[in-house]
């Protein structure tokens, strides 16, 4: 299971990558594996204000539907348009081409409340038990 | 990411009770299958991925461990008479080496289970029941068998059942079993053959909308047969693909599309209700009455007109009013987009009717389409069979 060291993670299996006040958000490799084949994702439009851990969308695999939670507060500046026609990018490339949305962070300090890669690794191990 | 809903009853289970394992359990674990509880059994939901497995069955050949399904052997001079009494279809019309689908109904016409019955000989039949209904049907058969000269044997744990399905299923099966035997089986026919000192029962039936065979062997021979099929390039497939395949073929799932509150006529199973004979069978009077009157509701096929996935339990709306519920729904790998089945009043059942399906508060336009969603291209020899 791939867990890149430079990202931060939620207990709901989202990741955020920080770059100059902009956070890119996606779901983890573990999450896409648990979901199975993703066939549909519902994402917010630019301009939408999200608070930390608010539901921002839905992701559907063949078998199930799950809600998506914002790792940090902020304003949506872009969602991944490529996923409309190729939702399978989330399975194939969860940390890169399968990203979900970009946020302009309201409070960069919130990132510190999220798990590091090491903590997330321990977390999914404890969840699996 | 948090769970907002699941695709129906497929993995819904009462907790705690120890799960039963099929004789192929170790094979599934070896192949890295994801195992889930299903109807009291620990079953593979997927191996390589639902869509890949689905496509293998539509385009080549896949196999499913269906050993969790109930299997009962009925032996005796009045086996056919008992089956006529408990099944809606007149099983006395079956000749040896043929099978037929039917419902087993309560006296009020409610469906106890949908079953497949095979005639092995005039005094020997095999009945296959849903896993979730196996013990109910065993008790039901035993209770009604008292006035018939018939012995009922439960073959659930002593045997193993594997469904091999797909356009290339027969070709790949011919690498394992005697090709002449396989070629002799016409659609819905069945027979038995010896294979490596074990007996294998085979029927040209299935639950995917594709051609193929369902095999039953002793539980002991099961793993050997499974491995031989793996060597013949048949892809192992789980319950996830089985569900999307059967939905595309508009085949009903007990517990989703029917239960004891639904009669066969409401779900398009009128063709397995024989009322042109004089024989008494359970549910006959109620079903005759239902046949003579206007139905209250009917099961239709729906295709979503926009992005979004219809799931069991979603409300079906018309003119702002709730008119029914989705009973089965998923993404369709073959057709693209979402397909579903659900109940609506008969006046809204016509092809082309525009309806709205409520996806957790979001209205999704859907259209009534012909049943089935998917029909396989048939070979000429099959059509003439």
Low-confidence stretches of chain B: 6-13
Unreliable segments of 5+ consecutive residues of chain A: none
Number of strands of chain A: 9
Strand order, main sheet of chain A: write it out. 1-2-3-9-8-5
* Fourth-level CATH superfamily of the largest domain in chain B: Probable tRNA modification gtpase trme, domain 1
Number of helices of chain A: 3
Elements of chain B, N to C (H/E): EHEEHEEHEEEHEEHHEEEHEHHEEEEEEH
Largest interface: A-B, 24 and 24 residues
**For the CA atoms, what is the radius of gyration of chain B?**
21 Å
Shape of chain A: globular
Report what the structure shows.
The complex is a heterodimer of chains A (129) and B (385). In chain A, 18% of the residues lie in helices and 35% in strands. Chain A is α+β, with helices and mostly antiparallel strands and 129 residues long. Chain A has a six-stranded antiparallel beta sheet. A three-stranded antiparallel beta sheet of chain A has the order 4-6-7. The longest helix of chain A has 12 residues, at 117-128. The two termini of chain A are 16 Å apart. With 385 residues, chain B is an alpha+beta fold. Chain B has two domains: 1-293, Gyrase A, domain 2, CATH 3.30.1360.120; 298-369, Elongation Factor Tu (Ef-tu), domain 3. Helix content of chain B is 21%, strand content 33%. Chain B has ten helices and 20 strands. Chain B has a six-stranded mixed beta sheet. Chain B has a six-stranded antiparallel barrel with strand order 15-18-17-16-19-20. The longest helix of chain B has 11 residues, at 134-144. Chain B is globular, with a radius of gyration of 21 Å. Classes of the chains: A alpha+beta (129), B alpha+beta (385). β7 (64-69) of chain A pairs antiparallel with β1 of chain B, so a sheet runs across the interface.
């Amino acid at each position: 299971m791939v867990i890149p060291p430079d990202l931060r993670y939620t207990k709901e299996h989202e990741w955020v990558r920080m770059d100059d006040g902009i956070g890119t958000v996606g779901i983890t490799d573990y999450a896409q594996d648990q979901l199975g084949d993703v066939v549909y994702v519902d994402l917010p439009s630019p301009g939408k204000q999200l608070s930390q851990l608010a539901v921002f969308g839905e992701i559907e695999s063949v078998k199930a539907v799950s809600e998506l939670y914002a790792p940090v507060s902020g304003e949506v500046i872009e969602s991944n348009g490529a996923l409309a026609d190729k939702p399978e990018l989330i399975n194939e490339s969860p940390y890169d081409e399968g990203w979900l949305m970009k946020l302009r962070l309201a409070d960069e300090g919130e990132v510190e409340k999220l798990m590091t890669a090491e903590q997330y690794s321990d977390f999914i191990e404890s969840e699996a038990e | 990411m948090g769970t907002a809903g699941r695709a129906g009853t497929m993995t819904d289970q009462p907790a705690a009770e120890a799960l039963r394992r099929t004789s192929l359990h170790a094979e599934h674990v070896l192949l890295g299958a994801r195992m889930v509880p299903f109807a009291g059994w620990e079953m593979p939901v997927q191996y390589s991925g639902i869509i890949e497995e689905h496509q293998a069955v539509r385009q080549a050949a896949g196999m499913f461990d269906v050993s969790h399904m109930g299997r009962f052997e009925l032996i005796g001079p009045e086996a056919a008479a008992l089956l006529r009494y408990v099944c809606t279809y007149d099983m006395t019309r079956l000749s040896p080496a043929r099978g037929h689908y039917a419902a087993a109904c309560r006296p009020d016409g409610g469906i106890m289970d949908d079953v497949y019955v095979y005639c092995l000989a005039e005094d020997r039949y095999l009945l296959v029941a849903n896993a979730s209904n196996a013990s109910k049907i065993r008790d039901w058969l035993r209770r009604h068998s008292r006035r018939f000269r018939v012995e009922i044997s439960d073959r659930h744990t002593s045997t193993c059942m594997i469904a091999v399905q797909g356009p290339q299923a027969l070709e790949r099966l011919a690498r394992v079993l005697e090709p002449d035997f396989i070629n002799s089986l016409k659609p819905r026919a069945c027979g038995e053959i010896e294979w490596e000192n074990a007996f294998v029962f085979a029927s040209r039936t299935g639950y995917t909308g594709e051609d193929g065979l369902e095999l039953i062997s002793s539980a002991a021979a099961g793993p050997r047969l499974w491995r031989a099929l793996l060597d013949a390039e048949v892809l192992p497939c789980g319950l996830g693909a089985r569900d999307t395949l059967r939905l595309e073929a508009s085949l009903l799932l007990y517990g989703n599309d029917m239960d004891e509150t639904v009669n066969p006529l409401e779900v398009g199973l009128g063709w397995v209700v024989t009322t042109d004979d004089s024989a008494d069978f359970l549910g006959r009077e109620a079903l005759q009455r239902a046949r003579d009157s206007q139905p209250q509701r009917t099961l239709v096929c729906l295709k979503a007109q926009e992005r979004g996935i219809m799931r069991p339990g979603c409300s079906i709306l018309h003119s702002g009013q709730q008119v029914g519920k989705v009973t089965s729904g998923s993404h369709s790998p073959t057709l693209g987009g979402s397909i579903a089945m659900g109940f609506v009043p008969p006046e809204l059942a016509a092809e082309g009717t525009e309806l709205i399906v409520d996806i957790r508060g979001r209205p999704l336009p859907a259209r009534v389409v012909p049943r089935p969603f998917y029909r396989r291209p048939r070979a000429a020899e099959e059509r003439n069979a």
